[in-house]
Amino acid sequence: QVQLVESGGGLVQTGGSLTLSCAVSGTAVSGNHMVWYRQAPGKQREFVAMISRDGSRKYQDSEEGRFTVARDTNTNTINLQMTGLKPEDTGVYYCNVFGKDFWGQGTQVTVSS
Q1: What phi, psi does 44 have (nearest 5°)?
Q2: pLDDT of residue 84
């Protein structure tokens, strides 16, 4: 059974940084496209970043240059390094196995202005 456990969220000021982690069990991160999503208060879940099986990366336009997604095959985790945080980055961040209905509990990121 696939399990995803996100961590690393918190409260930061505008311009601050955070690194989120997603511990994955039941499947290999190297064998899947892995995705980070964000759900802001009162809004639908939206795409943030993806790292593909071949290691290529994609980002939402608003995150390009500020966020970096990476994977660690030794620990079977994916990470999201976030810099230059803005209040609009606030939300619950989830990792996901692309195309599969596997979700963790999410981790809250709050950016104060």
Answers
A1: -75, 160
A2: 97
Q: What is the dihedral of CA 6, 8, 98, 28, to 10 degrees?
A: -70
> What is residue 61's predicted lDDT score, i.e. its pLDDT?
87
Single out the residue of 74, 94, 68 nearest to residue 29, CA to CA. Answer: 74
For 39-97, the pLDDT digits (tens) are 999 999 999 999 999 999 999 988 888 999 999 999 999 999 999 999 999 999 999 99
Residues 6+ apart with CB under 8 A from 50: 33, 34, 35, 36, 57, 58, 69, 98
Mean pLDDT of the region 22-48: 96
SS (H, E, C) the chain: CCEEEEECCEEEECCCCEEEEEEEECCCHHHCCEEEEEECCCCCEEEEEEECCCCCEEECHHHCCCEEEEEECCCCEEEEEECCCCHHHCEEEEEEECCCCCECCCEEEEEEC
